[in-house]
Amino acid sequence: MRLVRKYGASAIAASLSALVFLVPFAFIVLMAFKDQKQSSRIDFSWPTGNHLWENIVTVVTTRNWMLVSAFINSAVLTVASVTLIVIFAAMVGFVLQRRKTRFNGLIEFLILTGLMIPPAVVPTIWLLQGLGLFGKLYGLVLIEVAYGLPFSILLYRAFIATIPRELDEAAIIDGARPLDVFFRVILPLLWPVTVTNIVVQSVGIFNDFTNPLYYLPGNKNATVQLTLFNFQSQFNTSYNLLFTNILLITIPPLIVFLFFNRQIVAGMTAGAVKG
User: Fold this and answer.
1) How many domains does the chain have?
2) DSSP-derived 3-state class of residue 115
3) What is d(CA 18, CA 24) in angstroms, rounded to the nearest whole number?
4) pTM to 2 decimals?
5) Among 89, 111, 101, which Cα is nearest to 160's?
6) Does the residue 3 lie in any domain?
7) Which of 140, 9, 23 is nearest to 80 (CA)?
8) Half-sphere CA count of 168, side-chain side, radius 13 A
9) Domain assignment of residue 124, given as a range
10) Cα dihedral across residues 119, 125, 131, 133: positive or negative
C-alpha cells in the first residue's frame, strides 16, 4: 500500500504522458509506412507493406526538392533568430537586474505586455511593407526575435539575480569596461539558462507555422511547416505523403529535446531560488 501511494501518482503521470505523446507519434509512423490507398482510411491498422522509403523519396523530390530548400530556410531562420534573441535578451536582463532606474517599472510592464497581448498580423504586415521587409527571410527573423524576447528576458533576469554583484565590481576595479563585464564575466556564467533558451526558442521557431504563413508568402522562402500544403487539397489528400512529411520535420526537434531534456529543466529552475 505504501508503494502504491509513493509511486502511484508517478505511474499515472507517466501513463498519461505516454498516451498524449507516444500514441500520436506512433500513428504518424504507421501512416508513413502505408501506401496512398491504405492511408486514406486514416486508422491505426498495421501497414500491408513497407512503403516508407518510397514515400520519403516522393516527399523530398516533390516540387523541385522543395523540402530540402525549406530545411535550409528553416535552419537559417532558426539560427539567426536564436542568436539575436540570446544576445539581446541577456543584455536587457543584465541591465534590468543591475541598474535600478525609474523606468524599470515601465520596461517590465512592456515586457509582460509582449507576453500577454496576441500579435497583430495586419499592422505588422503594413510595417514590414513600409520597411521593404515583407516576404523576405530576414524580415521574418526580426519578427521571431520580437516574439521571443519577452520570455527570454524574464528567464535571463531571474538567473542573473543569482549571480553576486561583487563579480561586476571586481571586474570594474580591474579596469574592465561595461561590455567587458558583460561578455567576459557575466555571459559565460549564463551558460545553463542559455542552453535552455536556445533549445526552447529553436524548437519553437523551427516548428512555427503561422508566422511564415503570414509574413513569408511564396514558395521561394518556404519553411518546413509550409511544405505540409504540398500534399493537401480540397478533393484528394495523399495522407501517406503528408504524414511522411510530418515525420521528417518532427525528427530534428525530437532529437533536440531528447538530448537536452535535463539542461532544459536545469535552466528553467536555476533562477527560481536566489542564492
Assistant:
1) 1
2) helix
3) 9
4) 0.84
5) 89
6) no
7) 140
8) 16
9) 65-270
10) positive
Distance between CA atoms of residues 207 and 99, nearest Å:
36
Q: Give the number of residues written for the chain.
A: 275
Q: Where are the alpha helices (DSSP H) in the chain?
A: 2-17, 23-32, 36-39, 52-98, 104-116, 121-131, 137-160, 165-173, 178-180, 187-189, 191-206, 210-215, 239-270
Q: How far is CA 158 from CA 17, 98, 269, in A?
A: 29, 12, 10
* Cell numbers at 48, concatenated: 500491408
CATH code assigned at 92? 1.10.3720.10
Grid cell at residue 121: 498580423
Structure confidence by residue, pLDDT tens digits, 129-159: 999 999 899 999 999 999 999 999 999 998 8
Q: Is residue 256 part of a domain?
A: yes
Question: Considering the domain boundaries, does residue 56 fall inside one?
Answer: no
DSSP-derived 3-state class of residue 275: coil
Identify whether 54 is part of a domain.
no
